[in-house]
Design the sequence.
């Protein structure tokens, strides 16, 4: 084999090893090879693309550049495809043989080949050499001559083989170098991703430890929110199912949710899927709310919300929010379970105490609830305490520092009020009277209150007092807002008698007057009741009835005539007063 001149090889080596971009290097390889083979008028440099298994033109001389982007040769297709498939160099110096070798090209590739030639349609001769590396063919270099079928000689073919061997080494070296660069870049990206993931995991683990410590120490929603706010540094809030805020930070920024927020499609999705969701605010597209559902064992409990811009919501923050929501759910479920347990214990305690039962076990339960045997107790019955009425009652009890126990029963709220046993009688009565006064001032509260007794075993007696007061309140049609059993006077004795017994006593004393009113359509009974009410004061009675004093004298005379005795007699007057009280108790609306 006759080798190319040494200066040609040196020039070729210098060219292919020059620090240029890969595309420029491939173009230089082809151009330098053609410069070293003067008979070459045009040429291609193909490289094999393993992804599509096609030969792709990477460099051309003497052909329009468009052919590079359009031509894709299969293995065995055309002259270059044949050399690639057989891995053997080829020299064709007969135009007919050359045309025959190109007959198997696809119409598309052939069309672009012919249209892109700047010398003529079909070359007169060509040489093509495979680029071989470790038994693999990585491409093909093809050189063409359009003027003389004998222009490209065997010597040119041998020279091209030497150039192609050197070019193959340069191409593979460049590929390996690029591969190392890509691997190094991938390693850098992987290392950076691992570093960031480690940092995120560290942040997450630190937050988990903070929250776990708070939970272990019995802290609840406020402390969990504080820990979350320190980590995410964005406005946050916790809402119940009806979007009532249960806590938020920072304290000076009150959380605002759009109107009809629960009906927002994204919120509907959160409720169905129980997964977090970013909701872009319609009134401010630059702001969004991250909603993380707080989910109990089998139900939705509330929402953890964060106000943020439309920047990326980091996966670390997502994990922190989800973990916070989980711990909040556990805290709420635990407190709910404790409350239910306490309610059951209180209910059982109430049942036993109100029935008058007392034993060592109940005394222990009472002590746990803050009640001592030597303390004084009164029972209050109220209409169900809801909304502002409950808040008002709790405020009164808090201001007076009075300990109490409350349970809901059907249509009433039952409250056991506890006055400390270490107070003297005057202090105890003063505190209790102050409570009654504050309750009377509040027009939202409807209360029946039993007397104050010492000892838990007397609570049942106060409960019976309160029941009678509540019955009287309902009987009077809520004319009063509070009745204390100790203020009832003689009425408490009426309440212990049957309706029949009271009516019998009333008829024994005042039946003539009652019958007279019924027969004559008179007002003697009303006159007598008013006369008794004002303790026989004539002026006050006439003013109350709005009648002339002569009319009053006449009616009183008629009443005494019907009764058959004068009001000057003490026993008769006592019976009249008592009967009038019974009349008011039985019939007054």
Sequence:
């Amino acid at each position: 084999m006759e080798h190319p001149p040494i200066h040609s090889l040196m020039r070729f080596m210098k060219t292919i090893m020059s620090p240029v971009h890969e595309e420029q290097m491939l173009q230089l390889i082809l151009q330098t090879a053609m410069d070293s083979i003067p008979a070459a008028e045009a040429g291609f440099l193909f490289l094999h693309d393993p992804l599509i298994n096609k030969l792709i033109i990477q460099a051309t001389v003497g052909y329009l550049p468009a052919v590079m982007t359009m031509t894709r040769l299969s293995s065995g297709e055309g002259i270059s495809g044949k050399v690639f498939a057989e891995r053997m160099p080829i020299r064709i110096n007969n135009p007919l043989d050359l045309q025959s070798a190109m007959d198997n090209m696809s119409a598309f590739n052939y069309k672009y080949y012919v249209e892109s030639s700047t010398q003529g349609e079909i070359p007169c001769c060509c040489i093509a050499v495979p680029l071989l590396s470790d038994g693999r063919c990585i491409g093909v270099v093809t050189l063409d001559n359009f003027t003389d079928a004998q222009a490209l000689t065997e010597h040119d073919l041998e020279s091209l083989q030497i150039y192609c061997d050197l070019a193959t080494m340069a191409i593979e070296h460049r590929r390996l170098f690029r591969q190392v660069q890509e691997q190094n870049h991938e390693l850098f990206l992987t290392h950076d991703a691992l570093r960031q993931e480690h940092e995120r995991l560290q942040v997450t683990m630190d937050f988990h430890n903070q929250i776990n410590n708070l939970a272990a120490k019995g802290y609840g929603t406020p402390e969990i929110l504080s820990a979350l706010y320190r980590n995410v540094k964005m406005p946050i809030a916790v809402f119940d199912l009806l979007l009532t805020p249960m806590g938020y930070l920072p304290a000076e920024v009150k959380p605002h949710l759009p109107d009809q927020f629960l009906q927002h499609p994204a919120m509907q999705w959160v409720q169905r899927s129980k997964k977090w969701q970013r909701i872009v605010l319609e009134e401010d597209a630059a702001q969004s709310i991250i909603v993380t559902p707080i989910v109990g064992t089998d139900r939705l409990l509330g929402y953890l919300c964060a106000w943020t811009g439309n920047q990326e919501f980091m996966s670390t923050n997502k994990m922190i929010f989800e973990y916070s929501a989980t711990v909040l759910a556990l805290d709420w479920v635990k407190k709910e379970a404790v409350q239910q347990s306490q309610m059951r214990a209180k209910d059982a305690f109430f049942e036993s105490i109100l029935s008058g039962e007392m034993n060592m076990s109940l005394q222990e339960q009472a002590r746990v609830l803050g009640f001592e045997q030597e303390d004084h107790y009164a029972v209050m019955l109220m209409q169900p305490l809801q909304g502002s009425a409950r808040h008002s009652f709790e405020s009164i009890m808090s201001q007076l520092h009075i300990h109490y126990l409350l349970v809901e029963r059907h249509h009433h709220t039952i409250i056991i009020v506890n006055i400390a046993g270490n107070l003297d009688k005057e202090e105890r009565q003063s505190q209790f009277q102050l409570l009654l006064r504050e309750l009377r001032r509040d027009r939202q509260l409807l209360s029946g209150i039993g007397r104050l007794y010492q000892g838990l075993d007397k609570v049942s007696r106060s409960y019976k007092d309160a029941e009678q007061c509540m019955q009287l309140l309902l009987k009077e049609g809520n004319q009063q807002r509070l009745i204390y059993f100790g203020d009832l006077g003689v009425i408490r004795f009426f309440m212990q008698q049957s309706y029949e017994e009271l009516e019998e006593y009333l008829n024994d004393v005042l039946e003539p007057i009652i019958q007279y009113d019924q027969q004559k359509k008179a007002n003697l009974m009303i006159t007598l009741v008013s006369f008794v009410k004002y303790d026989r004061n004539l002026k006050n009675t006439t003013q109350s009835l709005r009648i002339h004093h002569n009319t009053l004298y006449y009616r009183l005379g008629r009443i005494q005539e019907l009764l058959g005795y004068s009001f000057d007699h003490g026993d008769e007057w006592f019976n009249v007063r008592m009967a009038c009280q019974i009349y008011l108790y039985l019939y007054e609306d």
